């Protein structure tokens, strides 16, 4: 099956390139509102499911026990830019659980925001695991693991060692939450290793969209996970900077729309979203893995078409669904625009 063209790049009045993909919009019961392309092919959702992976952090009581704030819970769902406030927030999460950054097993890379990288280099410092875009998610895992260790009367640092492995008790909790939300038997799903070293599973877009409808409404989740989903949505809406960062799509959209939309990007052209007031979930996968440009445009087009918006909010999303392209001299040279793939 050829997936439809979702986004086109225009230059000089002609289409220069295009990006195909698949889109599923589903409610919590599994009823399909929109299905474009192959929505049943298992895809690796990567970081798009971080909010689902954060459910046990809240439902277990760990978040309450360690007194995690809105910003810290938002960062547990984040692919952040490695800015100083992100680094400090991940460190604070660990400290509340009596841990140091040495507990993190996500690996190290430079901040994804250029200005943060230049500032860090100019200071003569090197990045550490706190700068990893997944450090908030991993700090959340560590907070969960520290609480599990406490309940079992074990020492937290020792209990947490190897928490990224599929059979570790922490990762089993995370996988079980993902399995329940998506309704997918993950033992039978394709399995790989994510960029931050935890397992990632092949899940169809249809199931991912349903999972985010459940995340947005609580329907189909256990009472504990439903309450956890509500708490995480509230936290992200209150502190959207922490789920992404300066100038980032997720932060900008959730600053504007608040709890009307929860959205999260994943590597290789994946986006998932919850539209709580509509009871819908969204999952998008670009065939060419274009995360930096095309999938954001597609996500903006879906939100613009489905959400009830006033004129100002509609204009805001228009600007994200049709992006002006400029060259290094600042001259307008083209446009990256969504096709009419989703009816208004």
Radius of gyration: 20 Å
Shape designation: globular
Output the CATH class name.
Alpha Beta
Helix content: 40-55%
Largest sheet: 8 strands, antiparallel
Instruction: State the separation between the terminal residues, measured CA to CA.
Output: 25 Å
CATH architecture: 3-Layer(aba) Sandwich
Uncertain stretches of 5 or more adjacent residues: none
CATH topology, anyone? Beta-lactamase
**Count of individual helical segments:** 14
Number of domains: 1
**Overall SS class:** alpha+beta
Order of helices and strands: EEEEHHHHHHHHHEEEHHHEEEHHEE
Number of strands: 12
Mean pLDDT: 96
Q: Proportion of β residues? A: 15-25%
Protein name: Asparaginase
Organism: Inhella gelatinilytica
InterPro entries: Asparaginase_II (IPR010349)
Pfam families: Asparaginase_II
List strands and helices in order, with pairings.
Layout: E1 5-11, E2 14-27, E3 32-36, E4 42-43, H1 50-53, H2 55-59, H3 62-65, H4 70-76, H5 84-96, H6 114-122, H7 135-151, H8 156-160, H9 169-182, E5 191-193, E6 199-201, E7 203-204, H10 205-217, H11 223-238, H12 249-257, E8 262-266, E9 270-275, E10 280-286, H13 294-306, H14 311-321, E11 322-326, E12 332-338
Antiparallel strand pairs: 1-2, 1-12, 2-3, 2-10, 4-7, 5-6, 8-9, 9-10, 11-12
